[in-house]
Amino acid sequence: MGARWWAVQERLRVAQHRFGRPPGSVVMLAASKAQPVEYIRQLAALGQRAFGENYLQEACPKLDGCADLDLEWHFIGAIQGNKAAQVAQRFDWVHTLASEQLALRLAAARPPARPPLNVCLQVNIDAEPSKAGVAPVAVADLARAVARLPQLRLRGLMAVPAPASDFADQRRPLRALRELWLELRGQGFDLDTLSMGMSGDLEAAVAEGATIVRIGTALFGPRPTRH
Ligand SMILES: *Cc1c(COP(=O)(O)O)cnc(C)c1O
């Protein structure tokens, strides 16, 4: 576990240097779905602070099992309407906001005593009909709706592009996401986060301006199968 964590940190360091990104400008989110709480605690002991979970039911006992640690929890999975309230209550970030209806549900359930829930809009950057995320042409309207909700803090955009092995092919959709992000910033949205890049395209994501990379396999090894 430790060796993998250091290896990914090194990949990140090298990529930041190679692509002219300031050291520390890209945060690694540990995508810990299907991994046990002991692994999370081991990574936390090394200094890993941000963790991403995809399934609420699986995540809740892990959050409980780490309640004594100062960790930051990011929800990176699909959110069913009936789970929105618990996500808003338990997590610090949501990366997969893609509808106004979900935004309203999250906002209504965010406890007033807590800081606003940090959110990224998930964009269907490849425009694949079957994929999650808001269409690029609809992002600005959704951003406007989210920005009106004081319980949410709109931080940026997130995407999961179709896997590609060629570096240039990896960069293309990531660049499209950054361009959309720059457009929104140009329209006055105060965005500081681009959540993109996974184990296979970390370097391409750093090259294209990612500020959060979400890393599972390279950190934990192959995922155990879910039951
Ligand atoms: C699982 C997951 C990741 C991590 O993927 P790896 O290829 O294992 O690094 C990143 N983002 C999301 C949304 C995921 O579900």
UniProtKB/TrEMBL annotation:
Stored PROSITE patterns: UPF0001
Keywords noted in UniProt: Pyridoxal phosphate
InterPro entries membership: Ala_racemase_N, PLP-binding_barrel, PyrdxlP_homeostasis
Record's keyword annotation contains Transit peptide: no
GO MF, one example: pyridoxal phosphate binding
Domain Alanine racemase N-terminal, first and last residues per copy: 7-224
Family that this chain belongs to: Belongs to the pyridoxal phosphate-binding protein YggS/PROSC family.
NCBIfam families found in the cross-reference section: YggS family pyridoxal phosphate-dependent enzyme
Protein name in the entry: Pyridoxal phosphate homeostasis protein
Organism, scientific name: Immundisolibacter cernigliae
